[in-house]
Known about the structure:
The longest helix has 25 residues, at 4-28. The chain is an alpha+beta fold and 304 residues long. The chain is built from 8 helices and 10 strands. The radius of gyration is 20 Å and the shape is globular. The N and C termini lie far apart (45 Å). Strands 1, 2, 4, 5 and 6 form a 5-stranded mixed sheet that branches.
Amino acid sequence: xxxxxxxxxxxxxxxxxxxxxxxxxxxxxxxxxxxxxxxxxxxxxxxxxxxxxxxxxxxxxxxxxxxxxxxxxxxxxxxxxxxxxxxxxxxxxxxxxxxxxxxxxxxxxxxxxxxxxxxxxxxxxxxxxxxxxxxxxxxxxxxxxxxxxxxxxxxxxxxxxxxxxxxxxxxxxxxxxxxxxxxxxxxxxxxxxxxxxxxxxxxxxxxxxxxxxxxxxxxxxxxxxxxxxxxxxxxxxxxxxxxxxxxxxxxxxxxxxxxxxxxxxxxxxxxxxxxxxxxxxxxxxxxxxxxxxxxxxxxxxxxx
Length: 304
């Protein structure tokens, strides 16, 4: 039987491989795009059929990549047994999509922790995989077949409140969008400088850019102090851009915003793929950092 360490490595490898394939497909296509831009018009938020909860972090990416690769337009997922409990049956021959979860275990006094992935005091967490199927892969649902409909920009007031609650200094004007760590402010062009695309209104493009820069803002040394270690080497800046890209994608899905690829990100694709292919855990690190940024920003708008 393989060790927990080798098992976890296999989980990382499977999920990383699928995400890399999706990024490569988008980079090689006639119109550059990424998997989180192509799962419908506004990005669908994958949800678990049993709990009704949205998937997060790396699992969100894995399911977006699978939906993009296989053309799924529905957002509900579940294991074989979870679908059976809904009186539905996964069709014969359908392929499952791997996701990952971390199981908490207790550490014995003599346990050196060599087979665990994360250790916290006397608790440890071991990576485990689960295999899920999309709603499009099952038959016999007892409820009417209703495709998940993403929310629209009718939530603009909620989005404005979310942004205001962060307290971020935002300077609107000029031609460029960026976050200045030294001066600790976000610069954004006027909304009328943004243009609509086939899948995104000009207003949505402006908000998506703002959410990207807010993700950068969250990593400031006075907040999450986000730094990528030596494992990324010269790719550190590109990886921070990936975190901001993922954080914005997660938030856009939460708010029902359509997304389009940023043209300036095409230059990062080579660096992203180089890092992801050389380190199976790099996409886990990036998506984890993006999820922490999202939760940090949400906590500011919903203080305890």
